[in-house]
Amino acid sequence: MHKQKKFIRTDLAIEAREMHDTNQIDGVKVITQDFQNIRVTSVKILNSIGEKNLKRPQGNYITIECPFLNKNSVDYREQTIKILADNLKKLVYKKNKFKPENILIIGLGNKNITADSLGPKTISKVLVTRHIKNFVPEEIKNFIKTVSAISPGVLGITGIETFEISKGICEKINPDLVIIIDSLAARNISRINSTIQIADTGIAPGAGVNNKRVSLNKKNLGCEIISVGVPTVIDAATLVNDTMDKIIDEMIFFSKQNFEHDFFLTMDRLDSDEKYNLIKKILGPYENNMFVTPKEVDEIIERLSNIIANAINICLHEKITEDDINKFICK
User: Fold this and answer.
1) Side-chain half-sphere CA neighbours of 256 within 13 A
2) Cβ neighbour number for residue 44 with a 10 Å cutoff
3) Interatomic CA distance for residues 196 and 39, integer angstroms
4) CA–CA gap between residue 17 and residue 55 (Å, rounded)
5) Is the pTM here over 0.85, yes or no?
């Protein structure tokens, strides 16, 4: 039996909770709902104790696990869009008196790197209306939000911090709500490209690939924040660590029946921190730049960006239904 995993790099609150060997964590409330092929887990960090235990800011984290999300199924895609839109509405309209009318959508990431292009690709598919709001027919004007969108690029290309660009735009257009889309990192390979996390705590650009910048949150931007992210990469050391665990289990089982197994038992006694640090040392100077993503990531990112954009469209614009969403996708 391996020891509890104390530290594994992940952006998912559900995985931070799973690192604890108990279902009851002080300051944390967890609710799980199962739908057909989809599980929705709400992790609510209630106070500073919960923040310390999960090492995340206080707030709501909703994880939608879709094991078939990377499959090209129309029915499954529509089901995912509906569930994502419904859960986005829970966070967008969580306060009875909060009805945002002016929304800014920010797509983080590098459009030139496929695994990091979820944000920019999603931005190209959301329905932006700020430039036409005053010209739409009166009968639908009240059902359309004022939406603008921006993909600020990355520091290495623009030379400007994402926060500086985002803050400047917020000061200019004064949004009620900012929705941020970004690629994340997971610790469990089964969640790569098959999990969507939405949260109301903001996001730190680049955190998924160990390049954390100034956080985009309510305190820094001055308005309500909702983030939408999908884990598209896994840290190489994490992947090797999980593989090592499985190999050790198999070798211990085999060696007990055939030969001396002290070496494997010694390896098994190492806790996750010790094994993880050993792997990082072996990977050496390349460790910080080694992240793994599936080979079919191009088409998966395209589908994921469609799903997220359509869910945002349905959430924000009252009269848009699932039958209408494809009309607003930029080809």
Assistant:
1) 6
2) 16
3) 11
4) 10
5) no
Return the CA Rg of the chain. Answer: 21
pLDDT at 97 over 90: no
Beta pairing, strands 177-186 & 38-45: unpaired
Tell me how far apart the 2 most distant CA atoms of the chain are, in Å.
81
Report the C-alpha gap between 297 and 316 in whole angstroms: 28
Q: Where are the beta strands (DSSP E) in the chain?
A: 28-35, 38-45, 59-65, 102-107, 146-150, 177-186, 195-199, 224-235, 291-292
Q: In angstroms, rounded to a whole number, what is the distance separating the alpha carbons of residues 149 and 132? A: 14
User: For residues 229 and 84, is the Cβ–Cβ distance under 8 A?
Assistant: no
Higher pLDDT, 297 or 80: 80
Distance CA 55, CA 15 (A): 11
In our burial notation (b when 16+ CB lie closer than 10 A, e otherwise), range 236-269 reads: bbbbbbbebbeebeebeeeeeeeeebeebeebbe
Q: Which two tokens stand for residue 87?
A: 């859960």
CA angle 310, 315, 318 (to 5 degrees): 110
Asked if pLDDT for residue 288 goes beyond 60, the answer is no
Task: Judge contact between 226 and 91, C-beta under 8 A.
Answer: yes
Q: Closest by alpha carbon to 182, among 304, 287, 295, 79?
A: 304
Handedness of CA 93, 143, 79, 121 (dihedral sign): negative
Say whether pLDDT at 311 is over 70.
yes
Strand, coil or helix: 118: helix
**Type of residue at 256:** K
DSSP state of 169: H
Instruction: State the pLDDT at residue 281.
Output: 63
pLDDT of residue 220: 94
The mean pLDDT of the chain is 81
pLDDT for position 20: 84
How far, in Å, CA of 45 to CA of 58, rounded?
Answer: 5
Structural tokens at position 242: 């999980």
The pLDDT score that the predictor gives to residue 298 is 87
